[in-house]
Every structure is written in C-alpha cells, then in structure tokens.
Amino acid sequence: MSVRKNGTTASPDLGRAEAARIGLRPGSTGTAGLRGAGVAGVNGCRFLGVPVRAVCCVVFLTPLLRWTIVRHSVSAGRSWRRACPRCSTPLGPRGDTGSITPRARCGVCGQRLGPPPWTVELVFVASLALLVVAGIRDLALVAFGWWSAVGTVLLFVDLAVQRLPARLCYLAAGGLGALLLGQAAAVNDFEAWLRLVFGGLGSAAMVAVCSMVAPTTVRWGDVRFALAIGGAVAWAGWLALYAMAMLATGAAAVVGIGLIVTRRATRKTHLPQGPFWYLAALVVVVTAVGLVGSRS
Predict the structure, then answer these.
(1) 172 vs 89: CA distance, rounded Å
(2) Greatest pairwise CA separation for the chain in angstroms
(3) What CA–CA distance (Å, rounded) separates 96 from 109?
(4) What is the pLDDT of residues 102-139, one digit of tens each?
(5) What gap in Å lies between CA 219 and CA 74, rounded to an integer?
(6) Quick one: 199 exposed, middle or buried, by C-beta within 10 A (0-12, 13-18, 19+)?
(7) Is pTM, for the whole model, over 0.90?
C-alpha cells in the first residue's frame, strides 16, 4: 500500500521489519514536505549520543582490555600473570597502572608488557566505529560491543602465546548470546537468535572435527572460539557465515604463504587463527548489517 501526501507518493519501507529484527533503527519513508527544525534537532542529538557513548566505552574499557591481555598472555600450564616478570610489581588497577595505559610498560622498571603501544586501543576503536557506522543500535550494539571487546583480547593473546583461553571464549559467546536474546525478546522475533545458536554450535562442531583430524594445525582453543565467531556471523545470516569462512581461510593462506616466501616461517609453523577469524567476522557482520540497513 502507498501513502499520498502533498500530491506525491511515498514508497513503503520494505526493510523496516528486517531492520527491527536485527537491532537497526529503520530509516524513514520519503515525504514531500520538510521536517521541522525541532525534530531535526532531536534526531541530531540522538545521532551524536551514539559516538559519545562509544567514546566513553573506549576510555573506560581499553585499560581493562590491556590488563586482561597482559594477565592471560602466558603459556599453557602456567598461572595467570599477576606481577611484572622483571621487578615483581603487582599489575592492574590495584597495582602498577603503567601496563594498562597505551604506554604498555611497567611504571617501576620500564619492562615492556603486552601488545605494542596504542595497538589495543586502535583495534578496539576501529571495531566499535565499524559497528556504529553499520547502524547497529540499542541492545544489539551492547552485545556486539561486548563481543568485540573480548574478541580484541583474544586476538592479542593468540598472537602473543598462540592460545585462546577457555574462559574468555565462553565469555564472548555467552555474553553475545544472552544480550541478543534480550534484543530478540524486545522485538518478539527469535529467528536471528536461533541462527546464532545453531551457527555457533555448528561452527564449533566443524572445527572440532578438523582438530581431531589435524591436531597440530587446529587446536581446541579454536573450537571454543568458533562458538563466539560462528554465532556472531550466523546472526547476520547464513550466507555471512560462509563468507566469513572463506575470507578468514583466504587471508590466513595469503599470510602463511607470504611468511614462507620471506623465510620467516616453514610449512610446519603454526599460524594463530584467532586474529583472522575475529577480523573476518567483524568485516562480514558489519557488511551484512550495513546492507540490511541500506534497504530500510
């Protein structure tokens, strides 16, 4: 059905239901008249509120992310790091805070701790920016903000010690699933959430089979991380899940070949999969959600 106003016809918003289902704010239909300045001002304030909240999250969360990365960047079988390995100064919010700032060094002895300066902040800010630009809002934005925060931690931990701690993988998957369940209940549509559940379980099952066939290449940490990655991407659509698998595999293959050609690795070198999975999943989710939003 079309609506006539001021002698013009406005097309119905075909993407409104789909946008509401995945947590987007649907766009408005076209009209012949101009909106009032007051309405425009309110909409502008709402638009500005999202970046402001995102900046606040970055300011308060990035120190916590750095601390979590430093704490978990230890080899399997060792206890989580609580102090500087050189001077034994306690680390974290209750100890030396130098390691949780972009400086990334112990404030007492100057020992380098965690990822290089500003790398964690850059990855997390870019992740949140992409989610906001894609149009994810409300509880869905909180859910994917949580997912990107834990995913950023796992990315750097895997790069540092080739390990994906179980409790962080379960935090990423559990927090995302619980928050998106709330989003599904709010719009009374559980289709996307059920895709998340089956996509996460299916991805973990497939990676588990690969781990049993090639245990030196695919490890059980990858199986646990597949729950969070597969679930997040399947929420955006089944096609997105296939696209993520192809993108992550292709990127890992290109990097692996490049390392072998430059003699920085051999065919037996284990290449961490966590960074490829997280970055590919983020790109695919943002692209899929952005395409849905463009139709709303």
Answers:
(1) 30
(2) 77
(3) 11
(4) 999 988 898 999 999 999 999 999 999 999 999 998 89
(5) 17
(6) buried
(7) no
